[in-house]
Design goal:
heterodimer; A: about 325 residues; mainly alpha; 11 helices; globular; B: about 675 residues; three-stranded antiparallel sheet; two-stranded antiparallel sheet; about 70% helix
């Protein structure tokens, strides 16, 4: 197994380009569904470019952590993305880590994001950090258990190997373990990307926000990195969901340009379908009270546990 | 019979002994006692590290013979040591810490000049190092128990070193009582082993399990599990740990959390892998369950703490739990006849042992530096230290990232190995017991995420934002030796994280001894860049690769900067204060506030209680003074130990009637005992 630099570079660019587009699409579709005109899908790009052009204001109480955190958040999400197969199996960095490393890298980003929230000595940042760490702490076992279920079936924690196994077994849609694990990870996705039943990405009301509260003191370039990193993280989790559970169209290691183009089309279609699901969930649900969120996430945990149990029963 | 480990190793032991003697001799000259005592401790650690690492790397420890240290005057006691692979591994761990903590202590002990006897501190510290090393090496049951007792007693003296404080005395007594209850279990266990083997030497105990009847073997296992479990601090025998570790001087806390509790792990591995032989499945299941519960409860109670050192002490319970998860899984795999998996799980547990030693000692040293600078352990009075204590903050951050099992540092590597062994073990059997494996894996994930939350709190409240007290505002960076000690352990955390393939090689003689397998060839993949699961295509991880890639990807954000924002500037402005006249330190989030959501979520466990008293003039919303108190309950303390203590006290009050003080009564007791014994004998 060797590194393929071109593949690596292409996937990096794809991650960077696709991530804001995906966030923009969700925002735009959500507006459409709510009878608003809404921003265009590529507005997210323009936002990032605008942030990059702005001067930065650094809060006076902040230490070097404040400067360090945006880079860690951005890079860890990007690196995690390189471990997930997007168009081609295996993923460019599948040798460097699989599902466990991915979860670890996202946790690393979150760790520094939360520290960045605490650093400026503002109460909002601390509140956001506290809530973010709480929500993710309850989300993590559900995510891991669901991943374990798939990993045990595949006999591997490598995401490319998992996708390959799913590809080789037909009618996975009927496999209860798979369906339950998918549902569990979907709920975790909503929590991890700050979507509506858990957090509201559009809110700026102090008492309800989680992710935005940590970013409150960030401006200019750092804000751009933070926002971009968050959208890359969202793309990574969605890719994990669509490509590991529905690896339709994923190209093999020696695929030609045609196969890759087909793979890209299939990938885009799957992502858009998942986007639509997220949009519907966000529009039809109200944000939960903070202390109701654990109920939702323990439901995800129970689903994942059932997935494991069903694997035990039906095999 | 190899020549090598003995010479260097004996020199290391001599260095500790000389450090103890020197510190006592020069106890009147504080500086000299400090330099000699801790300097020799550090030198002994260096020698020990060299000897243990080379013994493990060359594999010469596998054939190491027994050496008699001093001739014994007592017929059934032999003062003999044998540096076998297991002993060498634990010896390596303690030596690593001895180097770093020894150097740190030279700076730390200056704080005691003129107040306390630095000579006594250094002497006890060396005695603790010496006896703990001997615990790992002893080759004879009585010698082991002696070293064990000396270790417990010197630790007791060190815990109550600040004996002017009521808290230290109480914690010392609690430690003393619990430790001896554990030792009683060990003595009973050794008696059973002696009865079965007819010898006190450890070589006589080796693979004794087959010759013991099953019931006796189970009793023996439970006795040792209790005895070593107390020392390791596993739930529910842990209550002494969060009391004793924080009150000791910080260098001692680091040593205690780093290695002292690992003697329990050592003993458990020695007994269940080396002596008692192929375990029944419930042993592994029990250890795995205890480990999972310890890990989870440890981190949950840590979250509720705002005493920095107590928080770290609770995390020791958590990490002992993680280690036990590896050991328990390993025992299950041995039962299922899968030695390769058993070796993997054992490596995971022991890797976590040395990792925990390095990062926990690092964090305790950091906490010591903070304590030194701010004179408080209460996190609510800290804050803003990252600007005043830059190096300490950096070292503490590395330790926090490592203990939260985040890539690419060492905590992640050992937890990755643990996850792998738990997952691959699922296919090793068809019993219902295997469901425990992924479920404890999920609990490990919960533990890891909670630990991350806890260390965001510990680092964020202590080092970031505005200082919350005058002491924190005027804090100064720690002196150079203290920083050097932390730097060594930081380097160890990074090294153990980025280069696991080097350490994995050292495990070969150990797993060969205990499970008959060598895994380093299978575990190291991609020309030493990555470590791989032992199953084919089972997944790989490369912490080195992750670290390198994080650097290689740096051009991406920098390019975005150059492309769009070359002309932007950076200026410092006030933090958004909602239009008030500036933020005060009181407006920041507190440690208690930070963990409030988790306190509410797990309220069935914590049973939080709070009292708020307001004084106001016209409306309760405009209070003039406010008093807030919040408590959480430690259920083991209130449900088990407090009633137990009460019971013991009541029973001893009854028994006091026997101790009347009259000589006639005592003569009657002796007579009755004699008659009773004669009756039994007849």
């Amino acid at each position: 197994m060797n590194l393929d630099p071109i593949h690596l570079l292409l996937q990096t660019l794809l991650l960077l380009a696709l991530a804001p587009l995906l966030s923009g699409t969700i925002r735009s579709w959500k507006a459409k569904l709510q009878n608003r005109r809404g921003p265009r899908p590529w507005q997210a790009f323009l936002d990032i470019a605008k942030f990059l052009r702005k001067d930065m204001v650094i809060p006076e109480h902040a230490s070097w952590i404040f400067h360090f955190a945006p880079y860690v958040v951005f890079l860890s999400a990007l690196l995690a993305g390189l471990m997930v197969p997007m168009l081609r199996i295996p993923a460019p960095l599948s040798l460097f880590g699989g599902a466990l490393a991915l979860v670890g890298l996202l946790a690393l980003g979150r760790f520094f994001l939360a520290l960045g929230g605490l650093d400026p000595a503002s109460a909002f940042g601390g509140m956001g950090s506290s809530r973010e760490m709480t929500v993710s702490a309850i989300a993590e076992p559900a995510l891991m258990l669901a991943i374990f279920t798939v990993a045990i079936t595949a006999g591997s924690t490598d995401l490319s190997q998992m996708a390959r196994t799913t590809q080789s077994t037909a009618f996975n849609l009927l496999n209860p373990a798979h369906v339950l694990a998918f549902a569990a990870i979907f709920i975790v996705l909503l929590a991890e990307t700050g979507r509506i039943p858990v957090d509201n990405p559009a809110t700026h009301l102090e008492l309800t926000m989680i992710h935005e509260a940590m970013l409150l003191e960030y401006s200019g370039r750092y804000l751009a990195y933070m926002e971009w990193g968050a959208s890359v993280k969202q793309l990574v989790l969605m890719t994990l969901l669509v490509n590991v559970f529905f690896p339709v169209g994923l190209a093999g290691a020696d695929a030609g340009p045609l196969a890759l183009a087909f793979s890209l089309a299939a990938y885009a279609a799957k992502l858009l379908a998942l986007c639509a699901a997220v949009v519907v969930v966000e529009t039809t649900n109200a944000k939960l009270r903070l202390f109701r969120v654990p109920d939702l996430l323990s439901a995800a945990f129970v689903l994942a546990a059932l997935a494991l149990l069903s694997m035990f029963l039906f095999r | 019979m190899s020549e090598f480990p003995s010479t260097l190793l004996l020199l290391a032991l001599c260095a500790y002994a000389a450090g103890m003697a020197g510190a006592l001799v020069f106890r009147r000259a504080e500086r000299l006692a400090n330099g000699i005592g801790f300097g020799l401790a550090s030198a002994g650690g260096t020698l020990g590290l060299a000897s243990f690492v080379s013994a493990l790397a060359s594999g010469s420890c596998a054939t190491a013979g027994s050496i008699q240290l001093v001739p014994s005057l007592i017929p059934f006691v032999r003062f003999s040591i044998r540096a076998d692979p297991l002993g060498c591994f634990f010896g390596m761990t303690i030596s690593l810490l001895a180097v770093a903590i020894g150097i740190y202590s030279i700076g730390y002990a200056r704080g005691y000049y003129g107040r306390k006897s630095v000579g006594a501190l250094a002497a006890l510290f060396n005695l603790l190092l010496l006896s703990t090393t001997l615990v790992f090496l002893a080759d004879h049951a009585w010698f082991f128990l002696m070293a064990w007792e000396i270790m417990a007693l010197s630790a007791y003296c060190l815990v109550s070193f600040d004996h002017e404080h009521e808290e230290s005395r109480g914690a010392g007594v609690l430690f003393f009582v619990m430790s001896h209850a554990g030792t009683a279990g060990l003595i009973l266990g050794f008696l059973i082993l002696h009865q079965a083997s007819g010898t006190w030497g450890f070589d006589g105990f080796a693979s004794l399990g087959g010759r013991l009847p099953a019931s006796l073997r189970n009793v023996c296992f439970l006795l040792f599990l209790f005895g070593f479990g107390v020392k390791a601090g596993m739930v529910p025998l842990h209550i002494w740990l969060p009391a004793a570790h924080p009150v000791a001087p910080s260098n001692v806390s680091a040593l205690m959390s780093g290695v002292l509790i690992k003697t329990g792990i050592y003993g458990l591995v020695r007994v269940s892998f080396d002596w008692l032989g192929a375990p029944p499945s419930w042993w592994g299941g029990a250890v795995l369950a205890i480990g999972t519960i310890s890990a989870l409860l440890g981190v949950l109670f840590a979250l509720m703490e705002h005493d920095l050192k107590r928080l770290l002490a609770y995390h020791s319970i958590e990490n002992i739990g993680i280690i036990l998860m590896g050991l328990g899984a390993s025992m299950m795999f041995l039962h299922w006849g899968r030695p390769a998996l058993a070796a993997l799980a054992l490596i995971a547990g022991l890797y976590h042992t040395i990792n925990h030693a390095s990062f926990k000692a690092l964090l305790f040293l950091g906490a010591g530096a903070v304590l030194h600078a701010t004179h408080t352990r209460n996190m609510e009075e800290m804050g803003g230290l990252a600007r005043r204590m830059r190096w300490t903050a950096l070292f503490f951050l590395v330790g926090a990232v490592a203990i939260s099992a985040l890539p690419p540092l060492n905590g992640f590597v050992s937890e990755w190995l643990t996850y792998q062994s738990l997952l691959q073990g699922f296919g090793a059997s068809s019993s219902l017991l295997r469901l425990m494996l992924p479920l404890s894996g999920a609990m490990l994930a919960l533990t890891g995420a909670l630990a991350a939350a806890c260390f965001v709190k510990a680092f964020g409240i202590t080092f970031l934002a505005q200082p919350r007290s005058a002491h924190a505002r005027s804090a100064l960076e720690a002196p150079a030796p203290m920083l050097a000690g932390q730097a060594i352990l930081t380097a160890a955390c990074v090294f153990l994280g980025l280069f696991p393939m080097l350490l994995l090689r050292l495990f070969d003689p150990l797993t060969l001894q205990l499970t008959g397998q060598q895994l380093s060839q299978q575990l190291v993949a991609a020309r030493g860049m990555a470590i791989a699961a032992i199953a084919p295509q089972g997944g790989a991880v490369s912490t080195l690769g992750i670290a390198l890639m994080l650097v290689c990807l740096l051009p991406a954000p920098l390019a975005a900067w150059l492309l769009f924002g070359r002309r932007t500037r950076m200026r410092v402005g006030p933090t958004w204060d909602c239009g008030l006249r500036g933020l005060t330190p009181h407006m920041q989030y507190t440690a208690t506030g930070f963990s409030k959501p988790l306190r509410m979520i797990f309220k069935a466990l914590f049973r939080p209680r709070r009292e708020v008293q307001r004084e106001y003039d016209f409306s309760p919303y405009f209070a003039t003074t406010i008093r807030f108190e919040s408590h959480v309950e430690e259920p083991f303390q209130t449900r088990i130990y407090r009633p137990l203590k009460w019971l013991v006290l009541r029973a001893s009050r009854r028994l006091r009637a026997l101790q009347a003080g009259s000589i006639q009564a005592y003569l009657i007791y002796i007579f009755v005992t004699l008659v009773a014994l004669l009756l039994v004998a007849l």
